[in-house]
From TrEMBL:
Protein's name according to its UniProt entry: Eukaryotic translation initiation factor 3 subunit I
One Gene Ontology term from the biological process aspect of the record: formation of cytoplasmic translation initiation complex
Molecular function per GO: RNA binding; translation initiation factor activity
PANTHER family linked: EUKARYOTIC TRANSLATION INITIATION FACTOR 3 SUBUNIT I
The gene coding this protein: EIF3I
GO CC terms in record: eukaryotic 43S preinitiation complex; eukaryotic 48S preinitiation complex; eukaryotic translation initiation factor 3 complex, eIF3m
């Protein structure tokens, strides 16, 4: 089936996210706009307007009531998903790089960049306490002095946050005490993206060191490695098959010097158990910045440096294969 092309951004896509049912797809880009689309036909539902800088991250809670966005305009904003109304504005000292709702949708976390003399912080707010929002006072604020957080997701049961750093480290931060519960250093370069499996038992990390790696969420045990020849910008785990999809390409500044064929702008499918690549999907005219599987596993989306979001439908059973003994 032909991919659905979503043209709602003027600059490169920074993140895409499906809601839990998978009927909506959220996309944010460097052009200050957050869009929401019907995933089934690519119709745009609306936009969340208010940011004045590049929007780095987006998340949606479990019942699709609220949307959270973090931006380079030094703010994290909470929106009403249905009406597009801004519910809360949390100002920060530096750009907001990652954000997310925990499983209950009551607690949000976001991390800020290390820039302009300010260090990187991981902040936790409880949305049930309006005073925290009003005073802009998180109930927990963790400084990360050494290396800034480049990607972060909630772990199972909302007990901790799994954060990837610019030096390739992965840490578990407790959402209650703020202490570092576990550490792992399997990557040699910056972690670009972290995404969990649908049941929150595993997560996949995409790194500049040309690999994506699969980890156990609670123990941070390293399970698998998927190798490519280019930096990996994003990776996602299929909810129904033992597959992962990865998107990458070279650095944005080197793109103009190569042809699209050499640029490796395909989405690449790997088998999660055998670590073997078994498929590629072309499409973007530039590196792929983010990938996401639909919760039913029958389609995936990718957002590129070219400012387009593409929804690709496929039949996963055609992808199921056994290696010859």
């Amino acid at each position: 089936m032909k991919p659905i092309l979503l043209q709602g951004h003027e600059r490169s896509i920074t993140q895409i996210k499906y809601n839990r049912e998978g009927d909506l797809l959220f996309s944010v880009a460097k052009d200050t706009v957050a869009n929401v689309w019907y995933s089934v036909n690519g119709e745009r539902l609306g936009t969340y307007n208010g940011h004045t800088g590049a929007v780095w991250c987006v998340d949606c809670d479990w019942d699709t009531k609220n949307v959270l966005t973090g931006s380079a305009d030094n703010s994290c904003r909470l929106w009403d998903c249905e009406t597009g109304k801004q519910l809360a504005l949390l100002n920060t000292n530096s750009a907001v790089r990652t954000c997310g709702f925990d499983f209950s949708g009551n607690i949000i976390m976001f991390s800020t960049d290390k820039q302009m003399g300010y260090q990187c912080f991981l902040n936790f707010f409880d949305l049930r306490d309006p005073q925290q929002i009003e005073d802009n006072q998180p109930y927990l604020s963790l400084p990360c002095s050494d290396y800034k957080i480049t990607s972060a997701v909630w772990g199972p049961l909302g007990e901790f946050v799994i954060a990837g750093h610019e030096n390739g480290e992965i840490n578990q931060f407790s959402a209650k005490s703020g202490e570092i519960l576990k550490k792992a250093k399997e990557h040699t370069k910056q972690i670009n993206d972290i995404q969990t499996s649908v049941d929150l038992t595993m997560f996949i990390s995409a790194s500049k060191d040309n690999t994506a790696k699969l980890f156990d969420c609670t123990s941070l045990d390293h399970i698998k490695t998927f190798k490519t020849e280019r930096p990996v910008n994003s990776a996602a785990i299929s909810p129904i098959m033992d597959h992962v999809v990865m998107g990458g390409g070279q650095e944005a500044m080197e793109v103009t010097t190569t042809s699209t064929r050499i640029g490796k702008f395909e989405a690449r499918f790997f088998h999660a158990a055998y670590e073997e690549e078994f498929g590629r999907v072309k499409g973007h005219f530039g590196p792929i910045n983010c990938v996401a599987f639909h919760p039913d596993g029958k389609s995936y989306s990718s957002g590129g440096e070219d400012g387009y979001v593409r929804i690709h439908y496929f039949d996963p059973q055609y992808f199921d294969f056994e290696l010859e003994a």
